[in-house]
Amino acid sequence: MKKIGIALIILLSVLSIVSLFYFDPIAQDNTYHNFADQREIFGIANLLNVASNLPFLIVGWLGVYMTINSKLHISEKLKMTYMIMFCGLIVIFIGSSYYHLMPNNESLVWDRLPMAVVFMSLFSIIVSEFVSMDLGKKLLFPFIVAGIASVVYWDMTEQIGVGDLRFYGLVQFLPIMIIVAILIFFKSNHKSNVYAYTYLLIAYAVAKVFEYYDAQVYEYLILISGHSIKHVIAAVGLYMFLIKKGIALKR
Predict the structure, then answer these.
(1) CATH number of the domain encompassing residue 53
(2) Which pLDDT score is estimated for 191?
(3) What are the pLDDT digits (tens) for 39-64?
(4) Per-residue buried b or exposed e for 184-214, using 16+ beta carbons within 10 Å of the residue's own CB
(5) Are 104 and 53 in contact (CB under 8 A)?
(6) How many CA atoms lie within 13 A of 31 on its CB side?
(7) C-alpha to C-alpha distance for 75 and 104, rounded to whole angstroms
(8) What range does the domain containing 82 cover?
């Protein structure tokens, strides 16, 4: 199974990288910033899209607390990586809140940078826990640098009028495909790891659906939009991840 997984990962990586050269640069569509719920409440613009980031702060602090106090079933070798990921969640609260107060390309940079750090830290953790501890640890900082570089590159190209999201898209979606392959073809020493990451993937997929149907959800529910719900669902997935890791420790 591992050989099939490795072959699939290599194939996905090669095809994804090669495909970049078949597409012209993709600029950020300005309509991306036109969220359905733009209400100003209590003098705060886009209040619910801003406030719905609060769960990231809560889960981030909880993750930091549980990591420091050894309340998660994780290797001592991965404590730093987990700390980076959970601290990144706290920064996501700040960056995403700032972005949603003033949605534009300039503020979007500060939303995407911490997300890139969190996502690439998680990618490193999964490689460490399922494939190879040494490999995962060695890839942590190259992954994070790649994630940050993809955002910086996109921002620089937007500033010179030739916005290019291709690298950012690669860094976002190739790891997702690789993570799925890893969960299918590689085994962790603890079944709880599979369940924990499955919760995350399901939450991610559901959150993306709500993000896509932002306006339709807002039209139907009136009080809250799909984008705000997306934030909450993503945070709930991370919380379930924490709970599963904590339960594993008790066992």
Answers:
(1) 1.20.1070.10
(2) 64
(3) 999 999 999 999 999 999 999 999 99
(4) ebbebebebbbbbbebbeebbebbeebbebb
(5) no
(6) 3
(7) 40
(8) 2-250
